[in-house]
Design a protein that fits this description.
The protein is mainly beta. It has one domain: Lipocalin, CATH 2.40.128. The protein has one helix and 17 strands. The strands form three sheets. An eleven-stranded mixed β-barrel has the order 1-2-3-4-7-8-13-14-15-16-17. Strands 5-6-10-11 form a four-stranded antiparallel beta sheet, with no helix packed on it. The two termini are 31 Å apart. 12% of the residues are buried. It comes from Prevotella communis.
């Protein structure tokens, strides 16, 4: 049964919609350490690294702290904070004869979130879950390089007073997931779709993968994710992405 489910998930990958030719590929490496305080309360420390530009460019690294509380057997709430160090891409603004060029740079972001998730075993080992998450991301203002290029005079000058202004953003993330949750099984295959909404659908993520249980304390995760960009601001727009993810989880 597990082999059939894995084959089915791989077939879903081949049929995912809107796989644009202009998309990029990247890797996500994740680490999570989880500690249960009691039957209801748990805390975790998470870190990850992401690449883009077909694995050639570092995109960001992050570290976060999360706490979750089981309100009922089928209902869980969680909240947390994540620090992100992001590699912002270059920006080129062309005029009639002058061009402004801001090189890529590294800068911090701060993210807060709160979630409510429900899950239900609909048949045998098939589990369906729905999670609604609010998140707020804040990018502090930062003094960065920006060059003014005069195409006519063939000159270039540094705009030494340029500051990229701070920016905050609220988003709602809705995730629907199905997984094959069988007791004492080594593999737990799953598939999910997640919508990022801020006045409009800005991004959709399709993910298929499996958790691999080694022991009660140690497990790994492997997954593929397609990120479909929709209505993001031009300043924050990312390309469509094909991500390949590997994660490790330790339960204390």
């Amino acid at each position: 049964m597990e082999k059939r489910l894995i084959i089915l998930l791989l077939a879903v990958v081949a049929a995912l919609p809107r796989l644009y030719a202009q998309s990029e590929s990247g890797m996500i490496l994740g680490l999570e350490v989880e500690k249960k305080i009691n039957k209801q309360l748990g805390v975790s420390l998470e870190a990850d690294y992401r690449s883009r530009n077909d694995f050639k460019t570092s995109d960001r690294w992050s570290v976060g702290l999360n706490a979750d509380y089981k309100l009922a057997k089928w209902l869980k709430a969680d909240a947390g904070y994540t620090y992100l160090n992001t590699h912002f891409g270059e920006k080129i603004t062309k005029g009639a004869s002058k061009t402004k060029w801001r090189p890529s740079y590294w800068g911090p972001r701060h993210r807060f979130h709160a979630s409510l998730g429900a899950d239900y075993k609909v048949w045998s080992n098939l589990r369906v879950s729905l999670r609604e998450r609010w998140q707020y991301t804040y990018r502090p203002e930062k003094s960065v390089e920006r060059w003014k290029i005069d195409e006519t005079l063939k000159t270039k000058s540094l705009d030494s007073d340029y500051i990229r202004e701070s920016k905050g953003k609220h988003q709602l993330r809705t995730r629907l997931q199905v997984e094959w949750d069988q007791k004492r099984a080594m593999f737990t295959p799953y598939a999910n779709v997640e919508f990022y909404n801020s006045m409009a659908i800005e991004k959709i993520r399709y993910t298929v993968g499996t958790d691999i249980k080694i022991t009660k304390q140690h497990s790994f995760g492997l997954y593929y994710r397609f990120q479909d960009m929709r209505n993001s601001d031009a300043e924050d727009a990312d390309p469509d992405m094909h991500y390949f993810g590997v994660g490790y989880k330790l339960k204390l």
